[in-house]
UniProtKB/TrEMBL annotation, chain A:
Keywords: Membrane, Transmembrane, Transmembrane helix. This is ABC transporter permease. GO terms for cellular component: plasma membrane. The chain crosses the membrane at residues 43-64, 84-105, 126-150, 170-187, 199-219, 298-320. The keyword Electron transport does not apply. GO terms for molecular function: ABC-type transporter activity.
UniProtKB/TrEMBL annotation, chain B:
Belongs to the ABC transporter superfamily. InterPro entries: AAA+_ATPase, ABC_transporter-like_ATP-bd, P-loop_NTPase. The keyword Thylakoid does not apply. Coiled coil: none annotated. This is ABC transporter ATP-binding protein. Residues 5-235 form the ABC transporter domain. The keyword ATP-binding applies. It holds the Pfam family ABC_tran. Gene3D superfamilies: P-loop containing nucleotide triphosphate hydrolases. GO terms for molecular function: ATP binding; ATP hydrolysis activity. Keywords: ATP-binding, Nucleotide-binding, Transport.
Length: 327, 314
């Protein structure tokens, strides 16, 4: 059957690809929320969030009244040897997301439930997207709970309520965190289609994360140096090289998330990337940006994360469609 | 509509390998059709194509008049499928597993509950309703698989190797369930390589070999086609003599006569000729102590047939 005929059949197929979607979402979410795996992860993130926020509060108490953004500090302050909460989130979010996705499809396969489920009047689309949405909703639920916990700790520990600017920034950051989880979730799910063994899929997802965390920045710098070498020592050359390096590092979702965190949680950050002196003309250094300006700053990052997620989902979808479902 | 499953020149290739080769299959409403063949014959591939779970390379399929590649949802809504390996979510109860399937079929809650109760009753699992499936035996899982199918009240049920891996008691119980379903007017297509069990329930049988359907018919018809003889008559007589054997060989429709031991003679025949055999024996001066008959078992037909096929090929 040619690709064209295949496309024709796809176009002509009856009914909605979403039939059964919500049944899948409900079942998968119930599974996630009751699984031992999730309990462990929830405990882990509860301890880290509680611990780092507590430590941050100790430092903040002194500056209550003088600082407009103490709630943001709860996320960003660190004290040796503990990293800040955003430092922890940088690897806890991928960990949780991968844990929710790495056995999505191969798990059904190994339990011999896949052919039984796909023999019901639903399309494969519904199963895959149902599993993705269930994972995303679970992430949203878990992180919203953590955010609420932090607000609660702040109210009790600091004795002041967050101002609307802080709430707005933290809600945007929550959204970004959920989407950051989404990309690792969809990556893990894609590997769960590719690899029959859940352990292999988990390992592949973790290896990808490790690659972007540890090696990608080094690689980006090496690539930039060889592609845009500094031959004559001109400023333009150095700039071109640095810009390429920055662009390359932004392929990594970790970089995108880190920059989002910086822009949202440090209102004084006016630009992500290089700032030349003339660009700052007229700006009063040290004055915080209004929220909508910060959001504009991270907008490309956020859409980039979402676009990459959609791309990976499409890839997983194509791979899943082609898969033989027999055991 | 009496033909509920029709395939025309249905073919599936994996690369150069032809798994199903121009298959023309017709299953009539209300019958139990057995797809028989050794492992690797292409039975599972055929079933997956009928359900729209695998795309055919060429040829056409109609299930209840629908095309499974274009109208998979309609087909899957009316056809129940029991895969060769039935798996459930072990940590969930029987009921939770079934309600998930009911929801995927779009059934409202009360209707789903009603159907689940009646399905569990039919397969004898009512008291296991709220037990985790991890505690179920292989036979119970298989029956739960049938309960799951019944929830959608299908017109056709397709079972892939349903008795495989069951102990004799479990297999017997399962065949009983198949008979009950048949009595309700559900059309059943089942595949197997365990023949003697299937022989007990199938109205018609298709012998499958290397992706081709070699023969189709009732068990009796197949016996006649393959062996030219489908009945075996055992004559008990205390004094077997060459004359008696010769006389029996003259009976029309007797194909093969031989003495098994000094007191038993075996007559293979194309129809039930017990009366003629008895008459001939007595006329020839023999004493009749006992007379019994065995219809040809499909096992033998099958073994013999595939022996012949291999032989021709060699
Ligand atoms: N995905 C596949 N790729 C290549 N060959 C396959 C695939 N699936 C099945 N086959 C081959 O097709 C043949 C028929 O398989 P199957 O339909 O499972 O037989 P049966 O169910 O009768 O045992 C077998 O020889 C098998 O090896
Ligand atoms: Mg098979």
């Amino acid at each position: 059957m040619s690709a064209l005929e295949r496309a024709e059949i796809q176009r002509l197929r009856e009914g909605s690809p979403w039939t059964g979607l919500w049944a899948v979402v409900a079942k998968e979410m119930a599974d996630h929320l009751t699984s031992a795996r999730m309990r462990i992860l929830e405990l882990l993130i509860l301890l880290t969030a509680g611990g780092t926020v507590y430590v941050a509060m100790q430092q903040i108490r002194a500056s209550i009244g003088s600082d407009r953004f103490i709630y943001l500090k709860l996320f960003t302050l660190s004290q040796d040897p503990l990293p800040s909460l955003i430092g922890f989130l940088g690897f806890l979010v991928p960990l949780i997301a991968i844990a929710l996705g790495f056995d999505a499809v191969n798990g059904e396969f190994n339990r011999k439930t896949l052919s039984r489920i796909l023999a019901q009047p639903i399309y494969r689309d519904a199963l895959l997207s149902g599993k993705f949405l269930a994972g995303l909703f679970t992430l949203a639920l878990v992180f919203s709970a953590i955010w609420l916990l932090i607000f609660g700790m702040g109210l009790i520990g600091l004795g002041v309520a967050p101002n609307s600017e802080e709430v707005g920034r933290l809600l945007w950051f929550l959204l970004a965190t959920i989407f950051y989880g989404g990309i690792w979730l969809v990556l893990a799910q894609m590997f769960s289609v590719v690899f029959r063994q859940p352990a292999t899929a988990a390992l592949a997802a973790i290896a990808t994360w490790l690659f972007f965390t540890v090696f990608w920045n080094i690689l980006a710098s090496l690539l930039a140096q060889s592609l845009r070498p500094i031959q004559y020592g001109f400023l333009q050359e150095a700039l071109a090289q640095a810009e390429l390096e920055l662009a390359l590092t932004r392929i990594s979702p970790n970089t995108l998330y880190a920059e989002i965190a910086i822009a949202l949680l440090n209102p004084t950050v006016r630009s992500l990337g290089f700032v030349l002196p003339f660009q700052l003309e007229g700006a009063i250094l040290g004055t915080p940006l209004p929220l909508h300006q910060s959001v504009l700053l991270i907008w490309p990052h956020l859409t980039g994360l979402i676009a990459a997620t959609i791309l990976l989902f499409a890839l997983a979808y194509v791979l899943f469609q082609r898969q033989e479902i027999r055991a | 509509m009496s033909e509920v499953i029709v395939t025309k020149d249905l073919t599936k290739k994996y690369g150069d390998f032809v798994a199903v080769d121009h298959l023309n299959l017709i299953v009539h409403k209300g019958e139990v059709f057995g797809l028989l063949g050794p492992n690797g014959a292409g039975k599972t591939t055929t079933i997956l194509m009928i359900l729209g779970l695998t795309e055919p390379t060429s040829g056409s399929i109609r299930v209840l008049g629908f095309d499974p590649t274009r109208q998979p949802l309609t087909v899957k809504a009316h056809v129940g499928y029991l895969p060769d390996q039935v798996g459930f979510y072990d940590e969930l109860t029987a009921y939770e597993n079934l309600i998930y399937i009911a929801k995927l079929n779009g059934l409202p809650r009360e209707e789903a509950d009603r159907r689940i109760e009646s399905a569990l009753q039919k397969v004898n699992l009512v008291e296991m309703r709220d037990k985790a499936v991890s505690t179920f035996s292989r036979g119970m899982r298989q029956r739960l698989g049938v309960a799951e199918i019944l929830i959608k009240q299908p017109q056709i049920i397709i079972m892939d190797e349903p008795t495989q891996g069951l102990d004799p008691e479990g297999a017997r119980e399962f065949l009983e369930i198949i008979r009950t379903l048949r009595a309700e007017g559900i059309t059943i297509l089942l595949s197997s390589h365990l023949l003697h069990q299937v022989q007990a329930v199938c109205d018609r049988v298709g012998l499958f070999h290397r992706g081709k359907m070699m023969l189709v018919g009732t068990v009796d018809e197949l016996g006649r086609k393959v062996l030219g003889k489908a009945f075996r008559i055992y004559v008990e007589t205390p004094n077997t003599t060459p004359e008696i054997i010769e006389a029996l060989k003259q009976v029309p429709e007797a194909v093969n006569v031989r003495a098994l031991n000094t007191t038993t003679i075996e007559v293979e025949a194309t129809s039930d000729i017990r009366h003629e055999v008895a008459k001939t024996l007595i006329t020839a001066g023999g004493q009749l102590r006992g007379l019994s008959m065995e219809a040809q078992s499909l096992d033998e037909i099958y073994a013999q047939y595939f022996q012949e096929v291999e032989h021709v090929r060699a």
